[in-house]
Amino acid sequence: MTNHIALFEPLFPANTGNIARTCAGTDTVLDLIKPLGFSVDDTHLKRAGLDYWDKVDVRYHENLPAFLATIPDQTQLYLVSKFAERDYTEPDYTVNDNDHYFLFGKETTGLPESFMRQNPEKCIRIPQDDSHIRALNLSNSAAIVIYEALRQQAFPQLERVHRYPHDKLK
């Protein structure tokens, strides 16, 4: 089973770079759905995580239909949106051995509304106080959701105990 974070038409290189860093640290595939609002050679992207870029399985898709065509089991696709009714902690991310895909929308407009209306059973949300903010930061949201999936999966292949250099702290 592999987890995927998919970004629909991401605009801000810092968010994508931070998400790439999270993907590198969690052995998560990063799917980028074009058009991108930046070049992957962009200086901001490099600062935010390009030094980890070679450690990330990055897959580019020309558009949303092309991305969807790569998902063999659509039941394991989750659309992350603040407009969803179901919380991100509700699905069982340990179901079968299929990959799990977490699709996040563009920073300014989210996922296409018509697509979400066609797939309400796939929508999940991170609870937030809308009276104070429009939305959580994209890279924070991706980290919250992927770590919940990994928690449910017992953190496969991730180091559980960090060893300090030179065993200074015993």
UniProtKB/TrEMBL annotation:
Signal sequence region: none
InterPro entries found in the cross-reference section: Alpha/beta_knot_MTases, SpoU_MeTrfase, TrmL, tRNA_m1G_MTases_N
Keyword tRNA-binding: no
Cellular localization per UniProt: Cytoplasm
Principal location: cytoplasm
Gene Ontology biological process terms from the UniProt entry: wobble position ribose methylation
Amino-acid positions noted as binding S-adenosyl-L-methionine in the UniProt annotation, renumbered to this chain: V80, G105, I126
E.C. code: 2.1.1.207
Top-rank EC class of the record's enzyme: transferase
GO molecular function (one): identical protein binding
Reactions catalysed: cytidine(34) in tRNA + S-adenosyl-L-methionine = 2'-O-methylcytidine(34) in tRNA + S-adenosyl-L-homocysteine + H(+); 5-carboxymethylaminomethyluridine(34) in tRNA(Leu) + S-adenosyl-L-methionine = 5-carboxymethylaminomethyl-2'-O-methyluridine(34) in tRNA(Leu) + S-adenosyl-L-homocysteine + H(+)
Annotated ranges, domain tRNA/rRNA methyltransferase SpoU type: 4-147
CDD domains: SpoU-like_TrmL (cd18094)
Keyword Nucleotide-binding part of the UniProt annotation: no
Pfam families: SpoU_methylase
Matching PANTHER family: TRNA (CYTIDINE(34)-2'-O)-METHYLTRANSFERASE (PTHR42971:SF1)
Family: Belongs to the class IV-like SAM-binding methyltransferase superfamily. RNA methyltransferase TrmH family. TrmL subfamily.
Record protein name field: Putative tRNA (cytidine(34)-2'-O)-methyltransferase
Organism of derivation: Levilactobacillus suantsaii
